[in-house]
Design brief:
about 550 residues, alpha/beta, 5-stranded mixed beta sheet, 23 helices, globular, disordered N terminus
């Protein structure tokens, strides 16, 4: 393991040096000069929207992401025709990391990269391949209006500059994780109490007995929903602490493996696994396999970090044949004795989900930023979420939210939701607060059978059961550093130990695997990793408090 990590470290370092050489010395601290900005002679006019005609390439750095052709739906077609913006997607082909490395080594970066915050961004910053956006943030109105100062400060790289454009940032609360039940099965079994983990166990046993062809508890792709249960064993906690490998104790992080709540969780999960109440290939199953089960009513209960997407799609599939079928969101399952209002399924960060960065390959980075600023403003959000004016809305209310027209009200909810989801795939600067407020205003005007499943789930449960974990962002070390290598080794040890705990044949085996993991992670340097993350966490706390 050590030799492999050293080789990876050398490769990453080589890539950074190569990028720096290609950039002419890594001049990453300044925005492009005037001559660079004017290379694209096509950018000459401003139509009053704040954006100018521009064409740029776009790469989504995710294995699962396939960006549909630009102009193939009503929203992007409207943008192309009315705002003169064209996007040329570059596909990952299911191998995003390899594709990006190929583009880096070949000196053929796209104009825009859509990716996670963290090491993939910072390596490009250090190599001088990204455009600093500070001047643009000052110049254009929408990000300045909607993004909190503390959020922007948390986007700054070590050189003090901002290179990232946030997506689905917020100034409020949001979350999409949670629990749902199959309505048909739940109703047929008499709708027993489903509040505590004891309730859940009894219900899953009943499902197993009455519905042998149904998965009692579905836990998502590669078992992603399993660790979501952690928040149900301890107040004011989320599975974010597991990914950090540490939970807060005062002003420092302690090993998650020493947390009694974590031990309770893995013992409970193992019990469900041993009794076949969850899928036996839970840790290996694909997203397609999960969706197939959900969409064909072969799931009784599900827990997942993106329950609103699974639930909305599954609900559409089941209600297409029977309006009374489908799924129902429920309050998070929790340990008996906990305050249910302090139980959280997921965590949210005011920075949102991921980011876009503009590379120095772009001929007119300012025009690209201006488009993203337009996206995140009221007009862009309406077009890329609800569709262009004239489709599902013709007028706005006093707050700028679209008022549903007759087509919105008469189009079947399943059909309308599927159409709108195609627009949302291109909303790369999602403004969560604006959209959530607009959705709630719009949904309030609809009858119960016209409301979307996703919006109801969010407004009644998933937003309320998401914890603000913004203070823990940017706590991952760069992979080609000593702490980064420690993080990788600790992660590898944990992944193996976690699988052993889930699949153990007894409680004793679970506890034995847990003890071994404690010893091995300590040997691998977990204490150093937690010291690093504690320092980053406390720096974030200072930045956030400084702007309150």
């Amino acid at each position: 393991m050590g030799n492999r990590m050293k080789w990876v470290s050398l490769l990453l370092t080589s890539l950074v040096l190569l990028l720096a050489a290609c950039s002419g010395g890594g001049n990453s601290n300044t925005s492009p000069n005037t001559s660079e900005k004017n290379l694209n002679t096509e950018v000459t006019t401003d139509d009053g929207s704040g954006i100018k005609p521009v064409t740029f390439s776009f790469y989504g750095n995710y294995d699962w992401l396939t960006t549909s052709p630009w102009g193939d739906n009503e929203a992007t077609k409207w943008i192309q025709e009315n705002r003169k913006v064209t996007v040329e997607p570059i596909q990952s082909g299911g191998a995003a990391g390899e594709k990006l490395n190929t583009m880096i080594v070949g000196g053929d970066l796209p104009d825009v990269i859509f990716t996670d915050r963290g090491s993939s961004v910072e390596r490009l910053v250090q190599a001088g391949q990204l455009v600093a956006l500070d001047d643009y943030y000052d110049k254009y109105p929408n990000f300045k209006k909607y993004v909190k100062e503390s959020t922007l400060n948390l986007l700054r790289s070590d050189d003090g500059k901002i290179y990232q454009i946030p997506n689905w940032y917020t100034s409020g609360q949001f979350g999409n994780g949670g629990w749902m039940v199959n309505k048909d099965i739940y109703n047929e079994l008499g709708r027993p109490a489903l509040e505590t983990f004891d309730d859940l166990y009894q219900y899953l046993r009943l499902v197993q007995e009455k519905y042998p062809d149904v998965v009692p508890l579905e836990v998502g792709e590669k078992g992603a929903g399993l660790e979501i249960m952690y928040g149900g064993f301890k107040e004011n906690s989320t599975s974010k602490f597991i990914s950090l490998m540490g939970y807060p104790e005062g002003d420092k992080l302690s090993s998650i493996l020493d947390d009694p709540a974590y031990e309770e969780m893995v013992l409970y999960i193992n019990k469900l696994y041993r009794e076949r109440l969850i899928t036996q290939d839970a840790l290996q199953q694909t997203q397609d396999a999960v969706k197939e089960k959900v969409n064909t009513s072969r799931v009784a209960v599900m827990v997942e970090s993106n329950i609103t997407t699974y639930g909305a799609e599954g609900h559409r599939a089941l209600t297409a044949n029977n309006p009374d079928s489908g799924y129902e969101i429920i309050w998070p399952i929790h340990k008996a004795g906990l305050d249910k209002t302090q139980v959280f399924v997921s965590g949210f960060e005011t920075l949102g989900w991921n980011v876009s960065v503009i590379t120095k390959k772009a001929k007119d980075p300012e025009a690209i930023f201006a488009y993203f600023d337009w996206i995140t403003g009221p007009e862009g959000q309406k077009v890329l979420f609800f569709g262009p004016k004239g489709l599902y809305w013709d007028e706005e209310d006093a707050d700028g939210a679209p008022i549903p027209n007759e087509k919105y009200k008469t189009t079947p909810a399943n059909e309308r939701t599927e159409t709108m989801r195609k627009f949302e795939d291109f909303n790369w600067a999602g403004n969560t607060t604006f959209i959530d407020t607009a959705k709630m205003s719009l949904e309030a005007l609809l009858s119960a059978n016209q409301k979307s499943w996703e919006t109801v789930a969010q407004s009644t449960v998933t937003w309320k059961t998401a914890l603000d974990i913004t203070e823990f962002v940017n706590t991952d070390p760069l992979p080609d550093t000593e702490i980064g290598i420690i993080a990788q080794n600790v992660g590898d040890i944990y992944t193996l130990a976690y699988a052993q705990m889930v699949q153990a044949k007894s409680d004793e085996e679970v506890l034995s695997a847990l003890e071994t993991a404690k010893k091995n992670t300590q040997k691998a340097g977990l204490d150093k990793l937690l010291e690093f993350r504690t320092e980053k966490w406390q720096e974030n706390v200072k930045k956030i408090n400084a702007t309150k």
